[in-house]
Amino acid sequence: MAKQWFLWITPVAMVLLVPMTLPAQAVESSPSNTGTPRIDQREREQQKRIRQGVKSGELTRKEARRLEREEGKIRADEMIAKSDGKVTAKERRRLNHELHRAGRDIHRQKHDRQRRPS
């Protein structure tokens, strides 16, 4: 008897539950709602600047760690902004502000005349 009940309930549950998950998947994968190509590009450029600074010796290890931590916070904030399925204009402004501040910090650290010992 239990086996027959399970065979009947499984298809019914699938029919009822699958349509509920489709809208959530559509929102998550829609690039128009959560796409942040400009922010992603700025993040890549800043990572490149940090790597270049480490390679050239313009950034000390401590400076690079701090800048990487700042970049990590921005990535975490971006994930939070994307988590509800839509990055609002306010969230984009905040992320751009954080990226601007991080870019300024990278510039200041690279040009502060501190050098990594060779």
Task: Walk me through the structure.
- By secondary structure, this protein is mostly helical.
- The protein has a domain at 39-113.
- It is 82% helix and 0% strand.
- The protein contains five helices and no strands.
- The protein has helices at residues 2-29, 31-34, 37-56, 61-83, 89-110.
- Helix 4 packs antiparallel against helix 5 (89-110).
- The radius of gyration is 23 Å and the shape is elongated.
- 11% of the residues are buried.
Summary tags:
single chain; 118 residues; mainly alpha; 0% strand
- What profile does the largest beta sheet have? none
How many DSSP E strands? 0
N-to-C span = 77 Å
Give the % helix: over 70%
Number of helices: 5
What would the principal axes of the Cα set say about the shape?
elongated
Strand content: under 5%
SSE topology sketch:
Elements: H1 2-29, H2 31-34, H3 37-56, H4 61-83, H5 89-110
Summarize the structure.
The protein has 118 residues and is mostly helical.
